[in-house]
Amino acid sequence: MMTRILYMLLLTIVLLPTASHSQPTTFYVSLTGNDNSSGTLDRPFRTLERAKKEVSKVSLVTSGHTFQIIVSPGTYFLDQPLVFQSKDFGSGTVLRIRAEKAGASVVSAGKPLLLHWEKAHGNIWKAKVPATIDSIPALYGKEKTFTLARFPNKQGHVRPFEGYDKNAMHADRIRTWQDPTGGYLHALHEGRWGGMHFQIIEKPAADRVVMTGGWQNNRPSPPHGTFRFVENIREELDAPGEWFFDRTAKLLYYYPEPNEDIRSMEFIAAQLENCLHFAGDPAHRISHITVEGLQFAHTTPTFMLTKEPLLRSDWRIYRQGAIWMENAESIHIQDNIFRQLGGNAVFISGHNRYILVKDNLIEQIGASGIAFVGRPSSLHNPLYQYSDTVALHRISRSTGPRASHFPEDCQAVGNLIRHIGLIEKQSAGVQIQVASRIAVLHNTIYRVPRAGINIGDGAFGGYDIAYNDVFETVLETSDHGAFNSWGRDRFWRANRQTMDELTATHRELILLDAYQTTHIHHNRFHCDHGWDIDLDDGSSNYRIYANVCLSGGIKLREGFHRSVYQNILINNTLHPHVWFVHSQDTIKRNILMSAFNPIQVRDYGSAIDSNIFFSREQLLANQQLGVDRNGIAQEIAFKDPDHFDFTVMNVGALNGFFTNMAKQDVGVKKPELRALAATPPPVTLIKQTEQTSDEHVHWLGYRVKTVSSLGEQSATGLAEIHGVLVLSKEQTDPDTGGLEVNDVILSYDGDAIRKVADLLRAEARHRWKERHQLRIWRNQQAMNIRL
């Protein structure tokens, strides 16, 4: 642990720009300024581009100088991205770009529309847009992203997509569209592993369209048959808040909300993909620039450009963001706001060193929050698809990277990341792939469609994932975790038998890519439809300790050298899936609330022991698997679980197997962000003893209780007093449909249900599944339903 602390201290020191002792040369930018002026406080420049050029001019003749650009409040609309190149700055230049008032200076990738509205028909208005506007990929207003005309209409509480309909592309619906060219079909991947997007390019027949797209996922599939919607089709403009742009006639149509005065509203057309662009070159990195206190907004959606496959993961990406950088060093992005963006917020691409992304608010964006993604040229034997292989004799035995085209020694610290992936469902709060020693610390990440933090492969490890608060995750996809990873590295084979043989005889291959240990510790994780920590497909060389997992437990799929200890798994357990023989995994001294939930595990090794279970029954179930011979059974008394204090009050009864950690100081630390941040949903501990006969429990949108009286047995027609009775239905979200009031739940995914505790445990065990099979009693007969 001490080496990790020293590493972080050294990294923080390196990240600090080395400014000269002289006073900085300051240039001012204001919307009331003039680019022909001097850039002083009383004669400011009008644009950031002009200020940048002045810094460049002075720095090229004055080496080792410090500059700052101070930006007055207002919205600065860019005609083109602001590009910083290393060739434009002299040696030793240090630059700080900061807002005069934090958050009040907006750098916009859009163009404001001055419109004269008139009634079109019904509730729909129309306005002519300037001739210079060729397209409007997205339309923004004051603190609002307008809804492109769509079917079905947006329903904020429905996931995915805030509304979906299996008939979105039905022939009968297509017949109602006169010219849908330019329209989009958005759908989930057939396995719900992300999103897919298609554009309509032709309507050759009355009931048929031709589309292009669907390449956004690196595990190709047809679009999901149910979870889909269409947009950007004129005939679907039929609900308040929707808009449509007729490119041929240059007319913008809008259906106002009931409380909106259309003539006083602000409309901004997205025009650029990117606001700031830091581009160095291998011989001369762009360096020592701080961007502070600004707001970045109004970039275009980039979902049709998400084509580049990432190495062997399920991801494809588009290397772009509101801020993008490559061949950069010591760049600080701190205390900014990223809001109303069509794509990624910050994309750190290829070679980058000592990049700090700190204390930013990232919300209401189309794709990922912060992405650290290296170039494939950095790897030995790069492979792209799940089933790709390279012959054994051609596998390089060189450890680690082949080249330095990847982020290393960078940090994402203290960021509040929420409401992201609004368009692209294969997204994450923090995405890491082909990188080394990235620290992800004290971030709060929630309301995301997929994983909060995602690592795409084992190259090259050394990450420090700590003190993060990650919850409301995997809200729209399936088979993922709040933290999610893959490890399809050089040893990987899609054929499991071949991979077993290869790793048994050539163990030197296992850690060639994941050669540095990744630490996941002191985090709080909560996953809605999966595992709290999900190490998938070969993820290797991890130490996972001192985490509190609030709902989904920990899954370890095949991989090697994973050490899991001192974690608290609320209402859940460890999920070992298809382990290798001699995996060298170590699972010790964790607090578990049910026995392991294994899938196809033949060999547990000899280092699965001394775990703590809430009941003797759970411990015995684990011991029957051949593990935890020295485990103990002890119901734990937590100090204040209602407020997420999981200090163990009876720690003395645990035979020294568990040591209390300090109450977790997780999530953002900046006071302004902490005041904005939500907390995870309340946790109801599954009781190990029977509830009282009249105790009601809220479960997945229902109020339920154990069947416990002759009256309840008689009213439902049950043969005996057992099962869980549905008392009321609290919502109509399709994800929780299927059960009705007075139903009695008898089994859940094959687990017998006699009482509420059984139901809660079964739901926790099987939460990762997309759909669930229930045996219920309804109208005095048994039947099966899907939930």
Automatic annotation (TrEMBL):
The keyword Transcription does not apply. Residues 1-22 form the signal peptide. Keywords: Signal. InterPro entries: PbH1 (IPR006626), PDZ (IPR001478), PDZ_sf (IPR036034), Pectin_lyas_fold (IPR012334), Pectin_lyase_fold/virulence (IPR011050). Residues 700-785 form the PDZ domain. Transmembrane segments: none annotated. It comes from the Bacteria. SUPFAM superfamilies: PDZ domain-like (SSF50156), Pectin lyase-like (SSF51126). The keyword Glycosyltransferase does not apply. Gene3D superfamilies: 2.30.42.60, Single-stranded right-handed beta-helix, Pectin lyase-like. Pfam families: PDZ_2. This is PDZ domain-containing protein. It comes from Sphingobacterium suaedae.
